[in-house]
Amino acid sequence: MSNHNLTASIQAALNQLENAYNPAQVEAGMYQGWEESGYFAPTFDKDESFSIALPPPNVTGSLHMGHGFNNAIMDALTRYHRMNGDNTLWQPGTDHAGIATQMVVERRLEAQGIRRRDMTREDFIDKVWEWKEESGGSITSQIRRLGSSVDWSRERFTMDDGLSNAVKEVFVRLFDDGLIYRGKRLVNWDPKFQTALSDLEVENHDEKGSLWHFRYHFTDKDLTTQDGKNYLVVATTRPETLLGDTAVAVNPSDERYAHLVGKTITLPITGRVVPIVADDYVESDFGTGCVKITPAHDFNDYELGRRHSLPLINILDERANILPAMEVYPDLQTREPELETTPSEYAGLERFAARKFLVEQAGDQGWLEDIEDYALKAPRAERGGTIVEPWLTDQWYVAVKELAKPAIEAVEDGSIEFVPAQYKNMYMAWMTDLQDWCISRQLWWGHRIPAWYDDAAGEVYVARSEAEVRTKYNLSDDVALRQEDDVLDTWFSSGLWTFSTLGWADPAADKKVLETFHPTSVLVTGFDIIFFWVARMIMLTMHFVKNEDGTPQVPFKTVYVHGLVRDGNGQKMSKSKGNVLDPIDLIDGIDLEALVEKRTSNMMNPKDAAKIEKQTRKEFPEGIPAYGTDALRFTFTSLASTGRDINFDLKRVEGYRNFCNKIWNASRFVLMNCVDGDSNAKPIDQTANPDVWELPEKWIMSRLNSSIKDIHQHFAQYRLDMVSQDIYEFIWNEYCDWYVELAKASLNDDSVTDARKAQIRYVLLHVLETALRFSHPIMPYLTEEIWQTVAPLLSRKDTDSIVVAAYPQADNAQISEQVEADMAWLQELIASIRNIRGEMKLGNAVRLPVLLQNIADEEEARLSRIKNQFKALAKVESLEIVKEDDEVPLSSSSMVGQLRVLVPMKGLIDPTAELARLDKAHEKLQKQADGISRKLSNEGFVSKAPAQVVDAEKAKLAELEGQLKTMTAQMEQLKAL
């Protein structure tokens, strides 16, 4: 590069890097440029492939901090592999989110005075699609703002035609394989939305309740308990389910009730006679040790009922109102129940109204024993807050035991690895105790189950379409068919995510994509959905996707499990708590009033809104400043330790915003040292010349390459927190705080040759440019901006963007343990002088005489290598080596190992002030020494304490006594000044 061109390049670079780092200005338009340039798309011209499937966010509004955390990790991995030359695909998409989305749309319609039940299914679904376009666009915009380098040309949605075809294909083939069936089971039921829920959609809330104690009388009037009572007392938190009781249970080892097992009691109200059974499930010390059993309305009772062949009695309708006639199922194979007339006073009552009425009746009739306050966990629907009811209903199920076998083997044999490894145990615990999976939901929004009913014949048929049903089952056109109204659980379609998004069920798709990128390389997810999503993906993928030899193919090779993002106090972030943070607000900033409005706008309870407003105003009195994307991403990755939940603290974001600013300012400084005052370019070498390097250059190049090795290792181990630490430590502590300062001293030293200065500028730029590349996966915007200015100065800009630049590789030949040890010793020496300056309250401008006493031979050799740098950085006027027994003037001293560093005080300090300081320090040390002396003179302590503790105290006392002796001598010398 000619001198003229170089000058122009440097000046342009300085002009581009404004005086202050402004993330909004840096980020504006940059992502769009990356996307339009096609950098995020795979190239198919590389030997190695790397792929990630983005866990599809729900189209229910906007992304939260968990999404931001997850995206930062995935993007760092993706950008890292892309820069390392891998054929890289990060597959994006969104999830239709079943009940969550339907609920959002219903609420929006209700605000307009429109009820879903007053609409046709088709009209309602049209409204959901309108919402999806609005919300989905918001989500993809947020993903872009986070800097996520996904391949948008391959964006998918779980209700796309291609994915819907995959869902139908999988359902039909599982049904044909005998692995999908329709059956009556107990499910989590939401009476408000009248649909089954998965366990993940149910939250257990700690609430105040009651425990009601009722008397159940023995059918045999002559039968009594050991204490002479003709009844048992059972305790329950749900009195209304008494109507569906089919047994009373006791523990088989409970001697109080052993003589009663096999006898019967007659239920109050219904008069039903039910047995007394023995089962280990019952805890003898809970209540009276007697438990009422309602198999159709409690999951534990359901299992106990199966063990004892008890009938199931459903007492509720889909709205949780008491049925006029209770449904009695002798067993679950019975399709049509027997009917038992409900006592007329209960028929049609809402469940909690029935509870109140029953308790009043028990009190009036004398079989209410007691009521006590009781803390319970109330199961509430995650969305809507309704108390969830265990309810017996017909649903579609996947028989999972056969699917689980290869999914267990894949983890056992290492085909799939969990990181951290302890999550393998969690996965295996779930997989070895599986229940069949309820996949049907009573919703309108979702993948409608491809099943058709012939009501006249009482038959159900499964196929991909009605036309296929007629062909497959040889049905004539005049047979009336009705498609199943239920839709599939969203986990069913998302369970196909890794292969359905790559064109598995699309005959027109390029099969090269699936062959190249499946199995995916890694799944990045939270531990809370290992069972709900991860396990089901493994089961379904291995059943449907095969290798060339016909063996099952895994969906991913590694499952990287991260913790959940919590607030600074470790609390779960939720709208109800008012502690939610929006990642975009942290990027752009938000004023206090807007933040208050955002956190309280959806609060139904004015008291809750007032509480959250007060909390917000206290926590963010000035709102949230704009930190920029890179600072937020760096915070996320720095917290990405193995599997632990993270407590998110804005102070960390502020600290990493300062780190971004440090990089910016260091870059400006480096560029300014490449031109003189007239904006003329100074000599800059374009290649390394180690022959003219001195310790600073050798050291920073050694540390650069050591850091690169560490970063590669930590990426391979999915330790993004360690990668962040490597980057931070190198750039801030080693490059900025040390090498830049050392370089500055040399560049300002007239005795340094021009040839060496040209090489120093090369090293400054080379290390900066390299550090920008290895930092890019975590801080994409800042590094791109600066790299575009720095890379041309070294003729490094062989690509248009750092996004596709080569990731740095370590040069082991430039790593030197001796050089790093020399520099570490130099740093200790400089730190010792700085400590002395602080103690003596001497400014940095004062140049100091320094004496080195008790220096070892190898240290004297090392001193010759670092002497110039030491004198320059520590502002040393003169440097003299003195022997151990030489008499030295009164000095302030510091120790570097066995080496004593002294700065003579005469002429530098006020003896009176220094004597006063030492006197206070002496008094403090003497108190510490006296305390230890008293402890060691205590025979009780010496005889009872472990020997190592006593020895440690003795060593501490000896050290203090030595310091006191030295300090006393210094004080005597001061008095003589």
TrEMBL record:
Location in the cell: Cytoplasm
Domain of life: Bacteria
Domain Methionyl/Valyl/Leucyl/Isoleucyl-tRNA synthetase anticodon-binding: 697-850
GO cellular component: cytosol
Keyword set includes Nucleotide-binding: yes
Family under the similarity heading: Belongs to the class-I aminoacyl-tRNA synthetase family. ValS type 1 subfamily.
Protein known as: Valine--tRNA ligase
Gene: valS
